[in-house]
Design brief:
single chain, six-stranded mixed β-sheet, alpha/beta
Length: about 290
Amino acid sequence: MPTRPRTVHSPTVRLRRLAAEMHRARVTAGYSQLGDAAKALGWSAPKLSRIEDAKTRYIKPDDIDLMCDLYGIGTAEARVALHSLAEQGRERGWWAEYKDVFGDNVLPDFEAEASLVRTYEGLVIPGLLQTAEYTAEVFKGGQAHTDNAVERHVSARLERQQILHRQRPPHYSAVVDEAALRRRTLAPGVMREQLQHLLNMATRHNIDLQVLPFDAGPHAATTGSFVIMDFTSDIDPSIVYTETAIGHVISEGSAVAQFVTMFGHVQAAALRASESVSFIRHLITQESDLE
């Protein structure tokens, strides 16, 4: 089993929170134009822009103090909080040890601090609900990875799943297409164990699992799988994560509302939780008969 993640928060979310706080403080202080504030700080506009866009991972403590002085942030408590955000934004999460697996993929970074995760998955079991054996079968598919690479992917995925087992886990709501449940693995027994694992996870208080059956016909998410992540702090904007064969896309703003609407339609089309459990139990019986 993997060790528990050392970082229980997201450095990227903390950096984005710092950026939002600094932007808000600038505007409140009367510097509606970023260039005016940069000039008053004695900085270039791009430097301040990178801070407010959360593009700078390392922000000097002296720079935090300079902005606080200019924007009139005088309380020690507020300054300490901003310095803390900057320090947390510089940290390296456990996923940094899996650069060979994740590359520049920020999914585990955002997952670390998400309070609500909603996902639709059309082709495979959602990663946070996969067994190690099933994950290995997924990455062995098409012989696209070496044995060592498969082991690394399995280990990284098990690390990701720790967010569902921590003391205060996020609420996880998953709608899984019937196609993902019926796509059998080559290794015998793996799919049956995976389906049983889904039933076990569905009993947890923080997990909602629904099956979208073929009988539902065409649905709102025919464009593909996606993950919506919300965060506890109001200042942290919700995001949508989508993945392609060559990378990933993080969407914010109005796009999030579109995906939330899409997820609502998919949930409505899916079986209820109790019906989904019965459906999966039936599939387990079919798998057992085939073995």
